[in-house]
Amino acid sequence: MAEGCTHNCSTCGSDCKSKEMRESLREGSCVKKVIGVVSGKGGVGKSLVTAMLAAKISRNGYKAAVLDADITGPSIPTSFGVADEKAMGDKNGAIYPVKSKGGVQLMSMNFLLEHETDPVIWRGPVIAGAVKQFWTDVAWDDVDFMFVDMPPGTGDVPLTVFQSLPVDGIVIVSSPQQLVRVIVEKAVKMANTMKIPIIGIVENMSYVQCPDCNREIKIFGESNVEKIALDYGIPLLAKIPMSEAITRAIDEGEVEALDGEFLEAAVKLIEKI
Fold it and tell me: Average pLDDT of 164-175?
Protein backbone atom coordinates (compact mmCIF):
# COMPACT_ATOMS: atom_id res chain seq x y z
CA MET A 1 0.00 0.00 0.00
CA ALA A 2 1.37 3.42 -0.92
CA GLU A 3 2.41 5.84 1.82
CA GLY A 4 -0.33 8.32 2.62
CA CYS A 5 -2.98 6.05 1.09
CA THR A 6 -6.56 7.38 1.40
CA HIS A 7 -8.04 3.94 0.59
CA ASN A 8 -9.87 5.44 -2.39
CA CYS A 9 -8.37 3.39 -5.21
CA SER A 10 -10.54 5.09 -7.83
CA THR A 11 -8.59 8.34 -7.45
CA CYS A 12 -5.17 6.77 -6.92
CA GLY A 13 -2.49 6.78 -9.61
CA SER A 14 0.01 4.52 -7.87
CA ASP A 15 0.69 0.96 -9.04
CA CYS A 16 -0.28 -0.66 -5.76
CA LYS A 17 -0.75 -4.43 -5.44
CA SER A 18 -3.49 -3.90 -2.85
CA LYS A 19 -5.66 -2.42 -5.61
CA GLU A 20 -6.07 -5.78 -7.34
CA MET A 21 -8.94 -7.06 -5.18
CA ARG A 22 -9.93 -3.96 -3.22
CA GLU A 23 -13.34 -2.37 -3.59
CA SER A 24 -13.28 1.39 -4.12
CA LEU A 25 -15.09 3.94 -2.01
CA ARG A 26 -17.69 6.04 -3.77
CA GLU A 27 -16.45 9.35 -5.13
CA GLY A 28 -16.08 11.95 -2.39
CA SER A 29 -15.80 9.44 0.43
CA CYS A 30 -12.66 9.10 2.52
CA VAL A 31 -11.66 6.46 5.08
CA LYS A 32 -8.08 6.66 6.28
CA LYS A 33 -7.70 3.58 8.50
CA VAL A 34 -9.77 0.40 8.79
CA ILE A 35 -9.72 -1.75 11.93
CA GLY A 36 -11.52 -5.11 12.05
CA VAL A 37 -12.91 -6.45 15.32
CA VAL A 38 -13.11 -10.23 15.12
CA SER A 39 -13.55 -13.48 16.99
CA GLY A 40 -13.85 -17.11 16.08
CA LYS A 41 -17.13 -17.48 17.98
CA GLY A 42 -20.18 -15.45 18.91
CA GLY A 43 -21.17 -14.05 22.28
CA VAL A 44 -17.77 -12.83 23.41
CA GLY A 45 -18.46 -9.10 23.01
CA LYS A 46 -17.16 -8.02 19.61
CA SER A 47 -19.89 -5.42 19.22
CA LEU A 48 -19.25 -4.08 22.73
CA VAL A 49 -15.53 -3.69 22.02
CA THR A 50 -16.23 -2.18 18.57
CA ALA A 51 -18.63 0.40 19.98
CA MET A 52 -16.36 1.31 22.90
CA LEU A 53 -13.30 1.69 20.65
CA ALA A 54 -15.18 3.94 18.22
CA ALA A 55 -16.63 6.04 21.04
CA LYS A 56 -13.29 6.44 22.80
CA ILE A 57 -11.31 7.34 19.70
CA SER A 58 -14.02 9.84 18.77
CA ARG A 59 -13.64 11.49 22.19
CA ASN A 60 -9.92 11.74 21.46
CA GLY A 61 -10.73 14.09 18.60
CA TYR A 62 -10.77 11.74 15.60
CA LYS A 63 -13.61 11.17 13.15
CA ALA A 64 -14.77 7.62 13.85
CA ALA A 65 -17.12 5.26 12.03
CA VAL A 66 -18.53 1.78 12.51
CA LEU A 67 -19.36 -0.51 9.61
CA ASP A 68 -21.61 -3.17 11.12
CA ALA A 69 -20.74 -6.27 9.09
CA ASP A 70 -22.83 -8.54 11.30
CA ILE A 71 -25.71 -8.40 8.83
CA THR A 72 -27.95 -11.02 10.46
CA GLY A 73 -27.31 -9.99 14.07
CA PRO A 74 -26.64 -6.25 14.19
CA SER A 75 -26.41 -4.63 17.61
CA ILE A 76 -24.44 -1.45 16.91
CA PRO A 77 -27.56 0.76 16.48
CA THR A 78 -28.85 -0.22 19.93
CA SER A 79 -25.46 0.40 21.58
CA PHE A 80 -25.38 3.97 20.24
CA GLY A 81 -29.05 4.68 20.95
CA VAL A 82 -30.06 5.09 17.30
CA ALA A 83 -32.04 1.88 16.77
CA ASP A 84 -35.03 3.83 15.44
CA GLU A 85 -33.04 5.78 12.85
CA LYS A 86 -33.04 5.01 9.11
CA ALA A 87 -30.24 5.49 6.60
CA MET A 88 -31.19 7.97 3.89
CA GLY A 89 -30.16 7.91 0.24
CA ASP A 90 -30.15 10.28 -2.70
CA LYS A 91 -30.89 10.10 -6.42
CA ASN A 92 -27.23 9.38 -7.18
CA GLY A 93 -27.29 6.14 -5.20
CA ALA A 94 -25.39 7.41 -2.18
CA ILE A 95 -26.39 6.08 1.24
CA TYR A 96 -25.73 8.39 4.17
CA PRO A 97 -24.60 6.90 7.47
CA VAL A 98 -26.52 7.56 10.65
CA LYS A 99 -24.64 9.71 13.13
CA SER A 100 -24.57 9.04 16.86
CA LYS A 101 -24.98 11.78 19.44
CA GLY A 102 -21.19 11.97 19.64
CA GLY A 103 -20.75 12.19 15.88
CA VAL A 104 -19.69 8.59 15.15
CA GLN A 105 -20.78 7.60 11.64
CA LEU A 106 -22.69 4.30 11.65
CA MET A 107 -23.91 1.92 8.96
CA SER A 108 -25.89 -1.17 9.88
CA MET A 109 -28.42 -3.44 8.23
CA ASN A 110 -31.02 -2.39 10.79
CA PHE A 111 -30.97 1.13 9.35
CA LEU A 112 -32.37 -0.32 6.10
CA LEU A 113 -35.10 -2.56 7.55
CA GLU A 114 -38.67 -1.46 8.15
CA HIS A 115 -38.58 -2.97 11.63
CA GLU A 116 -35.40 -3.69 13.59
CA THR A 117 -36.71 -7.18 14.45
CA ASP A 118 -37.19 -8.16 10.79
CA PRO A 119 -34.89 -11.14 10.07
CA VAL A 120 -32.40 -11.08 7.22
CA ILE A 121 -32.80 -14.50 5.62
CA TRP A 122 -30.01 -14.46 3.06
CA ARG A 123 -27.34 -16.87 1.92
CA GLY A 124 -23.68 -16.14 2.54
CA PRO A 125 -22.75 -14.58 -0.82
CA VAL A 126 -25.65 -12.11 -0.62
CA ILE A 127 -24.67 -11.13 2.93
CA ALA A 128 -21.06 -10.65 1.79
CA GLY A 129 -22.31 -8.47 -1.07
CA ALA A 130 -24.20 -6.26 1.37
CA VAL A 131 -21.03 -5.73 3.39
CA LYS A 132 -19.21 -4.64 0.22
CA GLN A 133 -22.00 -2.15 -0.50
CA PHE A 134 -21.65 -0.67 2.97
CA TRP A 135 -18.11 0.19 1.91
CA THR A 136 -18.70 1.21 -1.72
CA ASP A 137 -22.13 2.91 -1.62
CA VAL A 138 -22.08 4.77 1.70
CA ALA A 139 -20.96 8.40 1.72
CA TRP A 140 -18.32 8.16 4.45
CA ASP A 141 -17.30 11.67 5.51
CA ASP A 142 -13.55 12.03 6.04
CA VAL A 143 -13.26 9.13 8.50
CA ASP A 144 -10.00 8.83 10.42
CA PHE A 145 -10.71 5.38 11.89
CA MET A 146 -13.39 2.94 10.74
CA PHE A 147 -14.12 -0.07 12.94
CA VAL A 148 -15.67 -3.10 11.23
CA ASP A 149 -17.81 -5.19 13.57
CA MET A 150 -17.43 -8.70 12.13
CA PRO A 151 -19.79 -11.65 12.52
CA PRO A 152 -18.27 -14.63 14.34
CA GLY A 153 -16.19 -17.26 12.57
CA THR A 154 -13.92 -17.39 9.55
CA GLY A 155 -16.51 -17.64 6.79
CA ASP A 156 -17.85 -15.50 3.94
CA VAL A 157 -18.03 -12.10 5.61
CA PRO A 158 -14.60 -12.02 7.30
CA LEU A 159 -13.07 -13.33 4.07
CA THR A 160 -14.89 -10.64 2.07
CA VAL A 161 -13.78 -7.89 4.44
CA PHE A 162 -10.14 -9.02 4.44
CA GLN A 163 -10.06 -9.27 0.64
CA SER A 164 -12.21 -6.28 -0.32
CA LEU A 165 -11.46 -3.63 2.31
CA PRO A 166 -8.00 -2.21 3.04
CA VAL A 167 -7.84 -3.53 6.59
CA ASP A 168 -4.92 -2.00 8.50
CA GLY A 169 -5.19 -4.32 11.49
CA ILE A 170 -7.55 -6.39 13.61
CA VAL A 171 -8.44 -6.62 17.28
CA ILE A 172 -9.32 -10.15 18.42
CA VAL A 173 -11.94 -10.44 21.16
CA SER A 174 -12.02 -13.45 23.48
CA SER A 175 -13.49 -14.57 26.80
CA PRO A 176 -11.81 -16.53 29.62
CA GLN A 177 -13.18 -20.04 28.98
CA GLN A 178 -10.62 -22.69 28.00
CA LEU A 179 -12.62 -23.52 24.86
CA VAL A 180 -11.92 -20.03 23.55
CA ARG A 181 -8.21 -20.77 23.04
CA VAL A 182 -9.02 -22.89 19.99
CA ILE A 183 -11.37 -20.22 18.69
CA VAL A 184 -8.83 -17.42 19.16
CA GLU A 185 -6.18 -19.48 17.40
CA LYS A 186 -8.47 -19.88 14.40
CA ALA A 187 -8.86 -16.09 14.17
CA VAL A 188 -5.11 -15.58 14.54
CA LYS A 189 -4.30 -18.14 11.85
CA MET A 190 -6.87 -16.67 9.46
CA ALA A 191 -5.36 -13.20 9.91
CA ASN A 192 -1.86 -14.56 9.35
CA THR A 193 -2.99 -16.44 6.24
CA MET A 194 -4.59 -13.26 4.86
CA LYS A 195 -1.53 -11.21 5.90
CA ILE A 196 -3.61 -8.91 8.10
CA PRO A 197 -1.70 -7.33 11.02
CA ILE A 198 -2.99 -8.25 14.48
CA ILE A 199 -3.09 -5.27 16.83
CA GLY A 200 -3.80 -7.38 19.89
CA ILE A 201 -6.30 -9.32 21.98
CA VAL A 202 -9.05 -7.99 24.22
CA GLU A 203 -10.52 -10.34 26.79
CA ASN A 204 -14.13 -9.58 27.70
CA MET A 205 -16.03 -10.86 30.78
CA SER A 206 -12.71 -11.39 32.54
CA TYR A 207 -14.01 -11.00 36.07
CA VAL A 208 -16.62 -9.44 38.33
CA GLN A 209 -15.41 -6.93 40.88
CA CYS A 210 -16.89 -7.42 44.35
CA PRO A 211 -18.72 -4.21 45.33
CA ASP A 212 -17.73 -4.66 48.99
CA CYS A 213 -14.06 -5.67 48.95
CA ASN A 214 -13.10 -4.95 45.29
CA ARG A 215 -11.81 -8.50 44.91
CA GLU A 216 -11.82 -9.80 41.34
CA ILE A 217 -14.13 -12.82 41.11
CA LYS A 218 -13.28 -14.96 38.09
CA ILE A 219 -16.61 -16.55 37.23
CA PHE A 220 -15.23 -18.49 34.27
CA GLY A 221 -12.09 -19.61 36.08
CA GLU A 222 -8.50 -18.63 35.46
CA SER A 223 -7.90 -17.06 32.08
CA ASN A 224 -5.28 -18.36 29.67
CA VAL A 225 -5.31 -15.29 27.43
CA GLU A 226 -1.85 -14.22 28.58
CA LYS A 227 -0.39 -17.52 27.37
CA ILE A 228 -2.20 -17.25 24.04
CA ALA A 229 -0.84 -13.73 23.59
CA LEU A 230 2.67 -14.86 24.54
CA ASP A 231 2.55 -17.92 22.26
CA TYR A 232 1.68 -15.79 19.23
CA GLY A 233 3.62 -12.67 20.16
CA ILE A 234 0.45 -10.58 20.28
CA PRO A 235 -0.14 -7.77 22.79
CA LEU A 236 -2.84 -8.32 25.42
CA LEU A 237 -4.65 -5.01 25.15
CA ALA A 238 -7.30 -5.21 27.82
CA LYS A 239 -9.29 -7.29 30.27
CA ILE A 240 -12.83 -5.98 30.49
CA PRO A 241 -14.88 -6.97 33.55
CA MET A 242 -18.50 -8.02 33.65
CA SER A 243 -20.12 -4.84 34.87
CA GLU A 244 -23.67 -3.69 35.48
CA ALA A 245 -22.65 -0.18 34.40
CA ILE A 246 -21.36 -1.42 31.03
CA THR A 247 -24.42 -3.62 30.45
CA ARG A 248 -26.81 -0.82 31.35
CA ALA A 249 -25.02 1.68 29.10
CA ILE A 250 -25.22 -0.68 26.12
CA ASP A 251 -28.87 -1.56 26.75
CA GLU A 252 -29.80 2.10 27.09
CA GLY A 253 -27.85 3.21 24.02
CA GLU A 254 -25.31 5.16 26.05
CA VAL A 255 -22.05 3.49 25.03
CA GLU A 256 -20.57 6.94 24.40
CA ALA A 257 -21.07 7.76 28.08
CA LEU A 258 -18.65 5.00 29.13
CA ASP A 259 -15.13 6.25 29.83
CA GLY A 260 -13.56 3.25 28.08
CA GLU A 261 -10.62 3.19 30.48
CA PHE A 262 -10.10 -0.53 29.88
CA LEU A 263 -9.32 0.11 26.22
CA GLU A 264 -6.77 2.88 26.69
CA ALA A 265 -3.84 0.69 25.56
CA ALA A 266 -5.76 -0.54 22.53
CA VAL A 267 -6.66 3.00 21.45
CA LYS A 268 -3.05 4.19 21.83
CA LEU A 269 -1.84 1.39 19.52
CA ILE A 270 -4.60 2.09 16.98
CA GLU A 271 -3.77 5.80 16.93
CA LYS A 272 -0.17 4.93 16.00
CA ILE A 273 -1.13 2.88 12.94
Answer: 95
